[in-house]
Amino acid sequence: MSVENLSQKPLRILRASWKDFRPVLALEKACFPHDAWPWIDVLAALTFPETVRLMAVWEGTPAGFVIGDLRRREDLGWIATIGVHPDFRRRGIGRQLLRACEEAMRTSRVRLTLRESNEGAHRLYLQEGYTQIDLWHRYYQDGESGIVMEKLRGGRKEVDGGGTGG
């Protein structure tokens, strides 16, 4: 794990790398038992350039993670995956990971996808300023639809509600 500490004890948000492969893979499997990424995708996410990789550590134990995919040409960041281990939920860890990833991506738009049935995450994203922009039917392997949400934030470009761009 990196030595960079982005928050206060007992929770620390650290930059993750390929060295964190085993704990991140274990978190992925614990958080998403039916939708876990294959190990090769987890390793890729921890090594590819243009990704933000953060891990939450609660009193020395890996508790959550987030992977953000930067698309600089579009001034867009995608939260590719975010998860908090079931034993550590309801402590604000997901919110802190989300905010830290948004800040690290430094884009004016951030998008993510979540299961239609994930009411807790949906509530969190609404509270954090995300709005639904699309619905991807039968997105998940079991046929459940995915809600696509976006947040407009002050990144490198000025974001306003008017005009035609240019």
Number of discrete helical segments = 4
Q: According to CATH, what is the class of one domain?
A: Alpha Beta
Uncertain runs: 1-7, 155-166
Q: Which structural class matches the secondary elements?
A: alpha+beta
The average pLDDT score comes to 87
How would you spell out the order of helices and strands?
A: EHHEEEHEHEE
CATH topology (fold) name of one domain: Aminopeptidase
Q: From the coordinates shown, what is the CATH architecture of one domain? A: 3-Layer(aba) Sandwich
Describe, in plain words, how this protein is organized in 3D.
By secondary structure, the protein is α+β, with helices and mostly antiparallel strands. It has a domain of 99 residues: Aminopeptidase. It is 24% helix and 32% strand. It contains four helices and seven strands; from the N terminus they run E-H-H-E-E-E-H-E-H-E-E. Strands 1-2-3-4-5-7-6 form a seven-stranded mixed β-sheet, sandwiched between helices. The N and C termini lie far apart (43 Å). The N terminus and C terminus are likely disordered.
Summarize it.
This protein has 166 residues and is an alpha+beta fold. It has four helices and seven strands; from the N terminus they run βααβββαβαββ.
Please give a handful of descriptors for the protein shown.
single chain; 166 residues; alpha+beta; Aminopeptidase; 7-stranded mixed sheet; 7 strands; 24% helix; disordered C terminus
List the helices and strands and how they pair.
Elements: E1 11-15, H1 21-31, H2 39-45, E2 51-58, E3 61-71, E4 76-84, H3 93-105, E5 109-115, H4 119-127, E6 131-136, E7 146-152
Parallel strand pairs: 4-5
Antiparallel strand pairs: 1-2, 2-3, 3-4, 5-7, 6-7
